[in-house]
Amino acid sequence: xxxxxxxxxxxxxxxxxxxxxxxxxxxxxxxxxxxxxxxxxxxxxxxxxxxxxxxxxxxxxxxxxxxxxxxxxxxxxxxxxxxxxxxxxxxxxxxxxxxxxxxxxxxxxxxxxxxxxxxxxxxxxxxxxxxxxxxxxxxxxxxxxxxxxxxxxxxxxxxxxxxxxxxxxxxxxxxxxxxxxxxxxxxxxxxxxxxxxxxxxxxxxxxxxxxxxxxxxxxxxxxxxxxxxxxxxxxxxxxxxxxxxxxxxxxxxxxxxxxxxxxxxxxxxxxxxxxxxxxxxxxxxxxxxxxxxxxxxxxxxxxxxxxxxxxxxxxxxxxxx
Length: 321
Fold this sequence. Notes:
single chain, 321 residues, alpha+beta, Arc Repressor Mutant, subunit A, BirA Bifunctional Protein, domain 2, SH3 type barrels, eight-stranded mixed sheet, five-stranded antiparallel sheet, 10 helices, 15 strands, elongated, BPL_LPL_catalytic
């Protein structure tokens, strides 16, 4: 019902409408309308109140507001339910709570900024205003061992979106970073909740440095990070970026559910900036060096060590040498 209140305000195209009119149209009490309006304000919507108590939705076209995202979103289920926030600690944490409470597959959590964005291995992901920070709730009918494949799907969807929409040479560093000229522009974090041999839910978090001024990031990140704004020398439409990404993601996720992960892996290999490179993998306190010669069907990295032996790396932090 809150979404219907929002839609009613949006339909007025910036004109004032009374609480009574909204209540009458939706056939709910005025008090309930007021509760939903308060909730919308808490989520970041700007709703003005006139001297006579009428309401008007004031749009900020730079924000990733759900009703605008849905307008041209060409998906069947990804993003049909969107939870929007001006700021959260972590979209993944919000999504996990929603998933535990039964949120449907395809639910998206999106925020303008994150206070405690999460990267792999507990690292903090810097998430200022201007980026695209979102998490997707998934409930695939597959074994938990296949869950890491969702990271590959998100990486391919992000890299292809950037290549197709902006003509940039985006590629993927194993297992989950999207790079432009060896600088990170996007990261993926997949978290899973399982029960014995079944998946309860998966949350895939994606962070894209869209309209971010890299010079404002911490100094230790400036040499290894880029943004779409920096590469193009202009701001991009984050709305179109997110819509295109979600469309690409859903198409690949559907292929995954049909048992066609091999096709996604083929695209990942084509986009890989790791295969053929000398790399160093950190696994806890252990460091392994070698040439990355491929990725197997489960997403593990295959290294050829200096002595010619092969080693399969299931997880770890990869550094291109």
